[in-house]
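Q: What structure does this chain adopt?
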Amino acid sequence: MVHELNVQDKFNGTILVSLRGEEIFSNAYGYENFERETRLSTQSSFRLNYISLQMTAMGIMILKERERLNYSDNIQTHIPEFPYENITLLHLLQQTSGLPNFYDFIYDDTTQTDVLYNDDILELYVQLEPEINFVPGEWWEYSSAGYVLLAIVIERVTGLSYAEFMSRNIFEPLEMNHTYCADGDPNQGIQHRVYGYNQRKQLTDWDITNGVLGEAGIYSSIEDLFKWDKALYTEKLVEKETIKEAYTPYQLNQYGDSTEDYGFGVELYNRHGNHHIDITGVWLGFYNYFSRNLKNKSSVVILSNTNSDPAYIAEFIEDIIADLRN
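A:
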């Protein structure tokens, strides 16, 4: 199905298609590193960007099931120095906190040689205390701060680093052997690491936020994301009811009975069934797509490292899967 698009000539990245929980197609096209001409494989590790959100959410879900925290907890319960009141972990998970994006102010007092980490982001909010955008729970608006704070909560609750907790509780149990957390080092020794480029094949892989985790910062392969996808239909990590809650639209305070089409780190759509889609934007040369149809257990995962929107490929594949069912 994919070859009809001649993606070999247009696309640099990896593609996975699964149906009813079984892989029906996976392949890689192009290069991990254009300078070294290192070929991509299905084990190549891409920067996931916002696909990382659902994994951070899973960390919180695991701790909730272990009764280490509650979604209703105020952030200040776990991060006492945080200057904003009445924001809960659930607000962070559902992107209804009202917190301003840290990208709006982190570049003012930093240089491109700096590397920021989660504690640096927290300290900036403590020092600057930028005005909140709306009362928590009254609106949906993506905030870059939300999942960074959730990563810090994971660390405060467990006493482990975010990277160590994620490895012990998610990556290792699922045998995601090509999945890593970034450590802020541009030369970090990730096996089969993929580098990000623009469409002119110019390296765009570096930013001062390369040490920030929770919102992004996870590298993974198409093979490992297939393991992740399959695990979400099981109870290997958390109970099915916990996962269902993470995929349920919620009520906004301001609008009575209306709901927002967003779960825990995933957007919720209806197309050919009930899809859960997480698409990264234009960031550091990576443009990734992860779609899950829970009705027929089909998934499409596309990881690209040349800043090219892969949605046209995904929509083509999803239309074929829908036709097969009719």
